[in-house]
Amino acid sequence: MLATAFTELVGCDVPIQQAPMGPISPPELARAVARAGGVGTVSVTGMTADEIVGGFDGGPPDGAMAANFVTADIDPAAVEAAAQRFRILDFFWRDPEPRLVTLAHTGGALALWQVGSVAEAHRAVEAGADIIAVQGSEAGGHVRGRTALLPLLESVLDDVRVPVLAAGGIASARGVAAMLAAGAAGVRMGTRFIASAESGAHPEYVSALLAAGPEATQISDGFAECPLCATMPRARVLRSAVAAVDDLDTDVVGSTTMAGTSRSVPKRAGLPPHRGVRGYVEAMALYAGECVTAVNDVPTAGALVRELAANTRDLLDRSLPAMSTDLPVPQRGVPGVP
Ligand SMILES: Cc1cc2nc3c(=O)[nH]c(=O)nc-3n(C[C@H](O)[C@H](O)[C@H](O)COP(=O)(O)O)c2cc1C
Which residues of the chain have pLDDT under 50? Predict the structure, then answer.
């Protein structure tokens, strides 16, 4: 157990939120994370209220789950339905809106807003958000801001009083421990969970992440055929995917089957390749954060959360007391030391 202001508020044991990732984060993944004590998140964008009520009927969740909404046209009835079913309603990419926060609260849920700048964090708090996630430019997927995680986190922590999660480029216990030590109330991790047993990612996508080395990602507008990119085409993807799509001399990269319906995937579509996709997977939107180098295996999500929590605890216990007692004492005559 790693208690923080976030875990206290939400009622979970581990200050790790698995980020929403469209078809890459199916309910099985979110449930596994929640069962292990973290917060599991599903994407409900585009679902009707009835689909939300009927779609998550696998019994009451065994922990804290969040439902994510993106894009501009959010159906208030869907928000109301989600608020009654999920502990957290999670919003991203649109400007913070008091109306949506009120709908979350009325239904009994907390409201979390992921932001990409200090100004946006202020607007989210003014709108009534209970939790802020700050997304640094290291993040995989659509990147909202232009600032790296640590400077953004520091500025936001100086200014806001609600629990703040750090997002972008975190895939290891070292990253989690560093963010908690810096004052974050928890972390939000996407890329690391793509390579987990319950992830919805296509096996070739997972293999590409496992094979990725240093500097393997870039922010690109190469997959701008999507609703989010319509407002701002900025997403961090594997460099190899940008090269592959640029080389491809066809308008269609494959097909996708979801809920029994098949349709073609146009070149440069923003859809990350899930298990129901066929075609040139290597030329699809292989979203990945800068932390991809730390993704080297495919554990179950539960084992991943438990291992991250245990190793974070260990790192904090070992490093912080050692730092406070073992810091070298400045000697007289050392250059730069008065
Ligand atoms: C494959 C993928 C899909 C994503 N889809 C969404 C999404 O639908 N909604 C959302 O709020 N964030 C989405 N994100 C961004 C995450 O919320 C988060 O900011 C990001 O994963 C953090 O960086 P990391 O991937 O380096 O951990 C996605 C990220 C990835 C990697």
Answer: 324-338
